[in-house]
Design brief:
about 0% strand; mainly alpha; 2 helices
Length: about 80
């Protein structure tokens, strides 16, 4: 991925590539290379999500960590101060 991209753009690119691979695998489920690519992309998307959440907080309610419900604490991912 391009090192000049910000973290949110890297996440969008990884998610796009991941979903395109999912669609391809729906049509060609026995393509071993595509399946390997899916796992690679899935791991990359997960890594980027973890990096983002460590810096800015949870992207979804499923990213909530800790002993309290922090999902509603701002800023929300779409607010400019979150980026």
């Amino acid at each position: 991925m391009d090192n000049n991209m910000n973290l949110k753009d890297k996440m969008k690119a990884a998610d796009f590539a991941l979903w395109e691979t999912v669609l391809y695998l729906d049509a060609y489920p026995n393509d071993k290379a595509a399946l390997a690519n899916f796992y690679k992309l899935r791991d990359e998307a997960e890594k980027l999500t973890m990096e983002y959440e460590a810096k800015y907080g949870a992207l979804t309610a499923f990213g909530n960590e800790g002993g309290s419900w922090q999902w509603t604490n701002g800023p929300w991912p779409w607010e400019s101060e979150a980026n």
